[in-house]
Amino acid sequence: MSFSALGLSERLLQVISNQGFTQPFPIQKEVIPAIIQKMDVLGIAKTGSGKTAGYVLPILMNQPQAKETKTRYLNTLVLVPTRELAMQVVDVFKLFGQGDSEPIKAKAVFGGVSINPQMKGMLGVKILVATPGRLLELVEANAVHISEIETLVLDEADEMLKLGFKDEMDRIFTLLPKKRQNLLFSATLSEEIKKIEQLLLNNPLVIKINEEKDAIDLIQQEAYFVDEQKKGPLLRYLIKSKDMQQVLVFVSSIQKADHVANKLRNNGIEAWPIHSKKSQGARTDLLTKFKHGKLRVLVTTDLLARGIDIEFLPYVINYELPRSPKDFIHRIGRTGRAQSPGMAMSLITPDEVQHFKVILKKMGKYVPGIDGNELLNP
């Protein structure tokens, strides 16, 4: 099936073609026609499955063509858990919205930065991508109105609940018009997601994309068993010996991210940490450099993993294991995307061996083990 069979306009099809996209992802085949028809949708699919374009394209298709008006009333609201994801989603709206004689004004808003420029920039915005807390601040300041929303999107709703946004989301729901289209996307179908579904969705189309196993099969995995004090030297050895030019390194804490990045730089490997204590400007700059291949190593925590969306990332390294097998799968899923192979490596200390066995059992995968200590002392 091609994009032309999904009911999209010629202009959108031209933009899609210009960007080199030829075939829609499975979730896009299902959701695009349904959203164009103004149906409610519940989509369960992992990050990287193509769901963002899956709702962006039909939302742009459904936008009224009336001449732009300078009001503060929104047409479409997209709620997301993190500022990185907010910026990523609004970039997709702008990418596919190009070519219009009067492009629909889309904007991202989030906390951690001054609210004043965001308030001033709301005039004429029709599509707003927002984190829940900052949206409520803007509403309370009368900088934006959500009483005429036609389409509400909850993107990565499971993460919003996990990060404690339930109360803010409930407050936002009470401010919205009762008649609207609702689109709910989540990586998991938890009991909390089911409750939101029952609260928000009206006879929805339910789509569950089970791509996880296929995606993991695209990822080549290796496990390096190493003593704790040799983890740093082994990380540097792997990056240099394999000539890795773009690698994402996962650690368990902000302090560890700073430490690992500093050690890499001190040993001639360009690396920078990205975490919640960095300013928004610094985070944006680091992500942009990394995505464009101008930064060799980015060291991050799980909190920011969902905002790091790179289609052809070749390497991921677990410097430390995450707490849950699901987080492990999500981490290594940063590579092996868009049907492209990737390499995921895990550095396992003696204390982590049992936990790693649990992760492997959950994945149903065999991962070859390599003696990391021996590599450093041939």
Question: Could you describe the 3D structure shown?
Answer:
The protein is α/β, with parallel strands linked by helices and 378 residues long. Helix content is 41%, strand content 17%. A seven-stranded parallel β-sheet has the order 3-4-2-5-6-1-7, with helices on both faces. Strands 10-11-9-12-13-8-14 form a seven-stranded parallel β-sheet, sandwiched between helices. α3 (51-62) crosses α4 and α6 (132-140) packs across α8. The radius of gyration is 22 Å and the shape is globular. The mean pLDDT is 86.
Q: Keyphrases for this structure?
A:
378 residues; seven-stranded parallel beta sheet; Rossmann fold; 41% helix; 14 strands; 2 domains; 16 helices; alpha/beta
Give the SSE map:
Blueprint: H1 10-18, H2 26-36, E1 41-44, H3 51-62, E2 76-79, H4 83-97, E3 106-109, H5 115-120, E4 127-130, H6 132-140, E5 151-154, H7 157-162, H8 166-175, E6 181-186, H9 191-200, E7 205-208, H10 212-217, E8 219-225, H11 231-241, E9 247-250, H12 254-266, E10 271-274, H13 280-291, E11 297-300, E12 315-318, H14 325-332, E13 342-348, H15 353-363, E14 369-371, H16 372-376
Parallel strand pairs: 1-6, 1-7, 2-4, 2-5, 3-4, 5-6, 8-13, 8-14, 9-11, 9-12, 10-11, 12-13
Helix pairs in contact: 2-3, 3-4, 6-8, 14-15
Q: How many helical stretches?
A: 16
CATH 2nd-level architecture of the largest domain: 3-Layer(aba) Sandwich
CATH classification, class level of the largest domain:
Alpha Beta
CATH superfamily membership of the largest domain, which one? P-loop containing nucleotide triphosphate hydrolases
- Taking all residues together, what is the mean pLDDT? 86
Number of strands: 14
Overall outline: globular
Radius of gyration: 22 Å
Strand order of the largest sheet: 3-4-2-5-6-1-7
As for the CATH topology of the largest domain, it is Rossmann fold
The secondary structure category is alpha/beta
Largest sheet: 7 strands, parallel
Element order, helices and strands?
HHEHEHEHEHEHHEHEHEHEHEHEEHEHEH
* Unreliable segments of 5+ consecutive residues: none
Percent range for β-strand residues: 15-25%
Amino- and carboxy-terminal Cα gap: 53 Å
How many separate domains make up the residues?
2
